[in-house]
Specification:
Layout (H helix, E strand, L loop, with lengths): L3 E7 L4 E9 L2 E10 L6 H5 L30 E4 L1 E5 L8 E7 L5 E9 L7 E14 L9 E7 L5 E8 L3 E13 L6 E9 L2 E14 L2
Antiparallel strand pairs: 1-2, 2-3, 4-7, 5-6, 6-13, 7-12, 8-11, 8-13, 9-10, 9-12
């Protein structure tokens, strides 16, 4: 009675932590936050019943139409100073992800992991619609808003990091695209929407990733 248990639930690359508690003899669940655990290996992986095509990358909830109770986007983890907002001018759907800061040096970000096999795909095309409002640099170019993709090998070691953006000032909704080379040793990827110290508001919508074969 009164015991507590935290359990990750969801798909392989999009998981949410739930708190389970016994209250008056009944099991109650509370959604905490999105997270990501290193994929299982060995026997645990062999027994996994649902096996999506983990080698082909895709972005879950890249239009930010699915929202948790706290306003954070479903499928994204380590969300800091970023919330889903309803926007009548949204390029896709009715919602956007907005990262905002009025404090120089404050970090704003949302991260998602995805499967990708560099032996099968040698490039990925990133497409996203962005808007910036009163973005002021603080601490150098790296503080500016952008989209960063990380590629990892089978040991989860980062082997490549490529970025799209580093925008400043004001701009209306604009489609941004970039093709990224995928190292052959890649077995896992992650994408970060971030603003690392600059102030202002950085809005994102309709984020997609498409893999290209050799």
């Amino acid at each position: 009675e009164g015991g507590r248990l935290i359990v990750p639930l969801g798909a392989r690359f999009q998981q949410t932590l739930f708190l389970f508690r016994k209250v008056d003899g009944e099991l109650k669940q509370e959604e905490l936050e999105s997270t990501f655990f290193v994929p299982m290996t060995g026997t645990a992986e062999e027994l996994r019943q649902r096996k999506e095509d983990d080698a082909t990358p895709h972005i879950a909830n890249g239009g930010f139409e699915q929202t948790a109770e706290d306003g954070e986007p479903v499928g994204w983890f380590y969300v800091r100073n970023a919330l889903v907002e309803q926007d009548s001018m949204a390029p896709e759907g009715k919602h956007i992800l907005a990262l905002a800061s009025t404090t120089a040096g404050q970090k704003c970000h949302a991260i998602q992991s995805f499967g990708i096999d560099g032996r099968r795909y040698r490039a990925v095309d990133i497409s996203v619609v962005v808007r910036t409002q009163e973005i002021v640099i603080s601490g150098g170019p790296a503080s500016l808003p952008g989209i960063t993709v990380y590629f990892y090998d089978e040991n989860r070691k980062c082997i490549s990091r490529l970025s799209l953006g580093l925008w400043i000032g004001d701009r209306d909704w604009t489609r941004q695209r970039r093709q990224l080379v995928v190292p052959a040793k890649t077995r896992l990827g992650s994408i970060t929407i971030g603003m690392f110290g600059a102030t202002g508001k950085f809005s994102v919508d309709d984020l997609t990733i498409t893999a290209s074969k050799p």
